[in-house]
């Protein structure tokens, strides 16, 4: 179908404007019906429609300014609906299926038509083809790239009645042949539906078929169907089976599809796990998706899954993820569910557990042989010695001093030395 979007895309040279468009090329667009152009592009002068699947000339009669129409390599069987193209000068119908040669009579009204191309049509095989066209269209100057001379037109006009009669007879024979070909095409389609793909493919490419509009259209649609089937097969091949992330009994599995290096650190001081995932340094953060659950953490890196089972349960709501500014790594902090217990409490608890397990009560015992008791009779001497100091030679000095004091007289009138 001819769509407005298609026409605008092909009108880039005219700033995608349609109302003032004078030339457009719609070749090789797989168009099967010609429409809307006479409404959207009234000022068209040149129109290229070659190599499509157009079966009929229609919806161009309002293009009053059209000068050149190229509709070669299509499925057209007769010339029609061109009377309104008053300025038409060149018409190219090469390699179509025009068998009704008498249909060129409608071109008599295109008084400015100078060039006509009918090469590759069934009508060119008719006896008297060129003479009939030259005698019918007096305004023509060239037919199939060959100039029409005055002498040629004169001879064609002389033999026109007889040539016209022969052309009519050949047209009838051709139309009967076309009717049979259409019936055969329907029969072949019914047989094709009963065959499998391999047999159908072999028959289509090996069995000779007549070159008709139906066979050309059938070939085009067959190729499209084969492309669609092949694309489906390729897509099925490309589709990988879904990887199992959690088993049927609810157990999470470790997965590393992107094959990234990682470390999982147990931060006891802050009572949390820290996952350092070495994602690509220049990877856009929007391509990362982090999902923290109580027993595992899952990271999606450019569509590839990384999943790691955690040694303990964590708090998903309190977890955080950020990118390292130096390495670009993804760092995920996940606080543990169980709170951290102090070391002293743990030690006392472990001691109590050991005692409880042993079931024995420890008692304080005193062995007289291992412990010495102070001698009460020597308490005073010990005090004196202790008062003089802990050094072993001090008591000797004291004794010597006492001996030196024997010869000294104690005079009470003399005041004591300070």
Automatic annotation (TrEMBL):
PROSITE patterns: LRR
Entries under SUPFAM superfamilies matching the protein: L domain-like (SSF52058)
Keyword Cytoplasm tagged: yes
GO BP terms, alphabetized: outer dynein arm assembly
Compartments in which it is found: Cell projection, Cilium; Cytoplasm
SMART domains in the cross-refs: LRR_SD22 (SM00365)
Keywords: Cell projection, Cilium, Cytoplasm, Leucine-rich repeat, Repeat
Region (Disordered): 180-242, 343-366
InterPro entries: CS_DNAAF11_C (IPR056496), Leu-rich_rpt (IPR001611), LRR_dom_sf (IPR032675)
Residue stretches making up the Dynein axonemal assembly factor 11-like CS domain: 216-336
Gene3D superfamilies linked to this entry: Ribonuclease Inhibitor
Biased composition (Basic and acidic residues): 215-237
GO terms for cellular component: cilium; cytoplasm
Sequence ranges of Polar residues compositional bias: 343-359
Family: Belongs to the tilB family.
PANTHER family attached to this UniProt entry: CILIA- AND FLAGELLA-ASSOCIATED PROTEIN 410-RELATED (PTHR18849:SF0), LEUCINE RICH REPEAT PROTEIN (PTHR18849)
Name assigned to this protein: Leucine-rich repeat-containing protein 6
Organism from which the protein derives: Nothoprocta perdicaria (Chilean tinamou)
Name of the gene this protein is made from: DNAAF11
């Amino acid at each position: 179908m001819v769509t407005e979007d298609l026409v605008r895309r092909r009108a880039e040279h005219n700033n995608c404007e349609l109302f003032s468009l004078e030339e457009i090329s719609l070749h090789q667009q797989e168009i099967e019906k010609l429409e809307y152009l006479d409404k959207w592009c009234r000022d068209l002068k040149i129109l290229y429609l070659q190599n499509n699947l157009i079966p009929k000339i229609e919806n161009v009669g309002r293009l009053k300014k059209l000068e050149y129409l190229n509709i070669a390599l299509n499925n057209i069987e007769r010339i029609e609906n061109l009377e309104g193209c008053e300025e038409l000068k060149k018409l190219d119908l090469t390699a179509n299926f025009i068998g009704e040669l008498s249909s060129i009579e409608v071109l008599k009204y295109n008084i400015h038509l100078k060039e006509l191309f009918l090469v590759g049509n069934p009508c060119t095989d008719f006896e008297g083809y060129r003479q009939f066209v030259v005698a019918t269209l007096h305004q023509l100057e060239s037919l199939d790239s060959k100039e029409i001379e005055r002498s040629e037109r004169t001879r064609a006009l002389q033999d026109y009645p007889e040539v016209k009669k022969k052309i009519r007879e050949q047209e009838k024979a051709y139309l009967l042949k076309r009717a049979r070909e259409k019936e055969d095409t329907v029969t072949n389609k019914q047989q094709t539906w009963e065959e499998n793909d391999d047999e159908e493919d072999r028959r289509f490419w090996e069995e000779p078929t007549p070159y008709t509009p139906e066979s050309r259209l059938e070939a085009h649609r067959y190729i499209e169907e084969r492309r669609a089937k092949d694309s489906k097969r390729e897509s099925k091949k490309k589709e990988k089976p879904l990887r199992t992330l959690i088993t049927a009994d609810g157990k999470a599995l470790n997965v590393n599809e992107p094959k990234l290096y990682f470390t999982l650190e147990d931060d006891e001081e802050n009572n949390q796990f820290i996952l350092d995932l070495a994602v690509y340094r220049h990877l856009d953060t929007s391509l990362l998706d982090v999902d923290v659950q109580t027993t595992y953490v899952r990271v999606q890196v450019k569509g590839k899954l990384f999943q790691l089972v955690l040694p303990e349960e964590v708090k998903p709501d309190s977890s955080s993820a950020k990118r390292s500014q130096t390495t670009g790594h993804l760092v995920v902090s996940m606080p543990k569910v169980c709170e951290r217990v102090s070391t002293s409490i743990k030690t006392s608890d472990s001691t109590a557990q050991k005692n409880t397990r042993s079931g024995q009560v420890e008692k304080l015992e005193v062995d007289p042989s291992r412990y010495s008791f102070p001698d009460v009779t020597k308490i005073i001497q010990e005090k004196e010695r202790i008062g003089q100091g802990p050094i072993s030679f001090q008591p000797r000095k004291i004794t010597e001093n006492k001996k030196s004091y024997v010869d000294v007289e104690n005079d009470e009138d003399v005041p004591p030395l300070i």
